[in-house]
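Reopening this ticket.

The earlier resolution said the output was attached, but the attachment link was broken on my side. Pasting everything inline this time so it's all in one place.
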Amino acid sequence: MVKIRRIFEPIKVGNLELKNRIKMPAMAVVPPGSEDVVINHLKAFYVERAKGGVAIIGVSCTPTRLIQDPMLGLYDDGFIKWLRELSSAVHAHGAKIYAQMGVGYSWAFGDGTVEVVGPSGVSLSGRPGTPFRMGGPLEPTMPRALSIDEIHRIVEAYGDGARRAREAGFDAVEVIASVGYIISQFLSPLTNKRTDEYGGSLENRMRFLLEIIENMKRKAGDDFTYTCRLSGSDLLQGGYSVEDTAQMAQVLEKVGIHEIDVMSGWHNAQVPIIQTDVPQGRWAYMAEAVKKAVSIPVAAGTQIQDVRIAERVVAKGKADMVYMARALLADPELPNKAREGRLADIRPCMNCCRCIEASDAPPVYCSVNARLGREYEYPADTPAAQSKHVLVIGGGPAGVEAARIAALRGHKVTLCDRGHKIGGSLLLAAITNRRIGNVVRYLDRLVKRLPIDVKLNTEITPALLDERKPDAVVLAAGGMAPGLEVPGGSGSNVLYHRDIKEMFTGWGVGKGGFGQRAVSRLEALFLRLYYNPSLIRWMLIFGFPFRKRVAVIGGSFAGCEIAVTLTERGKKVAVIEESRRIGYDVGIVHRWVWMRQLKEAGTRLETGARVVEITDKGVKISKDGSTEFVEADTVVIAVRLVPNTELAGELSAKGFSIYPVGDCAEPGRLLEATTSGFLIGQQI
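Inline output:
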């Protein structure tokens, strides 16, 4: 077993003694509402992480008034009272707290109008009107160049904000000069084309940042603790390199910065940075380069969710600290569990980035932690008023979460699944997404630890229900894949969601000729005894069940993920989508990466295409008034699932209290499934 030691050694940052080396960076998670509502929610959110054992917690704050921005205000003394409540709550549970001051891409001056601004009035990529934000679309607004007077006003606002943060009981302030926000635009020769004292040489490009730091120190005091976030490189052609960042770090140390976070890239860098397939620890070399240039603590963290990777980074001297954001959203108790050696109990972040893509209330979501953003409404698993016998049908993520919450609330829970393993559709998803395997293993351990009576290989029949006599039935039996009502839609070369799921989870598929059925049964027997998603993924290079040419009907998230996986395994793939956009439901973080992968692999992408017939040679489609033919040996139906209402109707007719969850109620992805299970578990 890996010994987690180095990240739990104390460290001094400025005037702060930190109990360990895990830092929770600031995130834009402020919900909408009045000040008291916001602070109550944030206290619950941050206190949970403080209890979990993290050393220091960051809070996103802005020194200017921004409209609909998920950050706390530091632009008025009236905020000090509310912020003091937050800092006191965090301190009460043994963690330090700092205010990260930033404004994104915008600023509001005297009249309150919010404008996109920058050093030189060029877009973030150096080309007019280019969209930005993690490779995805945003309104291509051209930034307005700041005047010298406006620069000075921003500097003063940062200083005033630092003073308010200290008065509110915060332990430190941090300036974010990374990822393409206003300050980092001054640092880069790509976006800073000024010819005055704020442009040109590195010294001049740093002037704005250094004036901010000087003003903060003057107003908040030299004896306060100051940190800074830098991008190790902007990862843009014509921008700045990690060597440039190391030079910047040396200057920052001289002017009194006490610790530096080294991030990777800007939001608009056309390089995968935080996507699922990016290896953990990929960007630690940037922090290592900065650490070699300075004597103050340096933190790494971008794309580090596993504490074992965090330990390795610190133990090998690549960084002094590790900042962990998404991992602490997934499991706020990660530090305590790691310190106690309970690594298997850590709820794993699967790197789906749904937390980043969230835009509705609550302002941040997590696919594996449904309580995230709901800590105030559900401060603990409140015991049920009356203990009931709860029967959960289905061992997928929705069913397991409903069973977990119901058991913690004191219900007697039985969990039944017709399969051989806990996981449901995640057993299939783990083949196309390497990070989901960790979630499947976690769910399996979870149900074994809790007082849940698990019955696998169990078909739900009226006799079973009569025997168990449950007070409530949670129906998590999954969604249904609608049939494709076209000639050839049920052919032996056509695979539906259920076919693929049963094939890869140990059941086999009874379609096709004798040879195909025999191979399917042998494979099912093997997988029943030895389910290994990585091995199955590797085996896809062979001709079963997907032959060389594959047509994927449906360009939603599921269709894109299957297509990407099959192209990686050497298949010639075509994606056929009836709407005008492939990946219409894929989040902004991943879609551009997948689309690039598919195009580079030569994938045929057909939009606005309706399937009219399937043959053993391929798929006939109707598009723009004409008929085309897509050659394929295997056809995969990846259209979106529909709710499974049939079983719910049957059970309701027998008088049982039915609670449909997950795809059974409303098909979605892991986040939606986990959330529905959580809420129903709280409701029963």
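Reporter confirms the inline version is readable. The two ends are 40 Å apart (CA to CA). The first helix runs from residue 35 to 51.
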